[in-house]
Design a protein that fits this description.
elongated, seven-stranded parallel beta sheet, six-stranded parallel beta sheet, 2 domains, Rossmann fold, alpha/beta, 13 helices, about 350 residues, about 15% strand
Length: about 350
């Protein structure tokens, strides 16, 4: 059995945060003893509690927060974990080392190309892509202490479709409304796809800019910003094609979700999608920063439904093989068993 203190100090919404919840609940369901320690978030705490866990909420504030680290130390001392895992920069920087003479090992889980100074107290670092693991080693981490462990995505097979607005072929994009996600490129691509509708599920600082861009491009009536949604599976079930236009995407949980829902994927070749997708087999890849190339690939997929279905079927097979809960959970449990004291 694994005895894990699992620490997350991230935002309310996000791919890493969602996977933290999935993995925490899955480990608990497998019979491991997991203490979730999270940044104050009543909704996340409620979801974890509904799964039978007893999450602890701490402040996890900025540099002037001098309370969280000692409180976290007391929690860990009381729980006596076999292993501690800290997710991303803030959690890692607030996590104290284990007590001598037999400190518990600490694992830093990275979902991006972060500053490794935050992880100086970590004994092991985990990246969620092979490229990220290689980058960690290139930064000076010993290869034996750097690991690749994938995410698993929710399985959306058979989910009933949502009611999406608009007419014609329905394109779906999802993610935080941030420049890194490249939703502006998707909107510009839509100007070259007459009759298609683009729905974007997500919220963030770019909402006003994207609304203005759609208006300026003359496609406002065909662009629908849906806000943050909890029904990603239903949205995917309702779309004809999933679009990942990210400029920067270390992994691409959204690609995995689209595969699970058996939806064809067109993606810009950012780091994560470029590693995940076998071009022409499990999706279509286009150069980043090119609305024209994105539009061309979308047009080709929509024009050949049989080939789009083949891409979707292959994506589903890849999901089942490599990114469904059972195979990925087995890898995580094997790793945690090996590193815990």
């Amino acid at each position: 059995m694994i005895r894990l203190a699992n620490i997350m100090a991230g935002a309310r919404h996000g791919g890493a945060e969602a996977f933290y919840e999935r993995l925490t609940l899955a480990l608990h369901g497998a019979g491991d003893e997991v203490l979730p320690i999270i940044r104050r978030d009543p909704e996340r705490a409620a979801r974890l509690a509904a799964g039978g866990l007893s999450p602890v909420e701490l402040r996890f504030g900025g540099p002037i927060d001098i309370v969280t680290r000692p409180r976290l130390g007391l929690l860990l001392k009381k729980f006596q974990p076999g292993v501690v895992m800290a997710w991303m920069n803030r959690a890692a920087s607030k996590t104290p080392p284990g007590p001598e003479p037999t400190p518990w090992p600490t694992v830093g889980r990275l979902g991006g190309y972060y500053d490794l100074r935050y992880y100086q107290s970590c004994d092991h670092l985990v990246g969620n892509t092979r490229d990220l693991r290689d980058w960690i080693v290139a930064q000076g981490c010993p290869a034996a202490n750097a690991h690749y462990l994938p995410n698993f995505a929710a399985d959306f097979a058979g989910v009933a479709p949502a009611a999406l607005p608009g007419e014609g072929p329905r394109l779906l994009a999802m993610g935080r409304l941030h420049r890194n996600k490249g939703f502006d490129l998707a909107i510009r691509a839509l100007t070259l796809l007459p009759g298609a509708t683009l729905c974007i599920g997500g919220e963030g600082p770019e909402r006003e800019a994207l609304t203005a861009l759609a208006r300026d491009c003359g496609v406002a009536e065909r662009v629908h910003l849906l806000g943050w949604r909890e029904d990603a599976g239903a949205l995917l079930a309702a779309c004809d094609l999933f679009v990942c236009s990210s400029r920067h995407e270390p992994l691409g949980n959204i690609v995995l979700e689209a595969w699970s829902a058996s939806r064809p994927v067109v993606a810009a070749a950012a780091q994560g999608p470029g590693e995940l997708i076998d071009p022409g087999e499990t999706g279509l890849l286009v150069p980043a920063e090119s609305a024209e190339a994105l539009a061309d690939a979308i047009r080709a997929a929509l024009a050949d439904p049989q080939d789009a279905a083949r891409l979707a079927c292959n994506g589903r097979k890849e999901f089942e093989k490599s990114f469904a809960e059972a195979p990925v959970l087995a890898q995580w449990r094997d790793f945690l068993h090996k590193v815990q004291r």
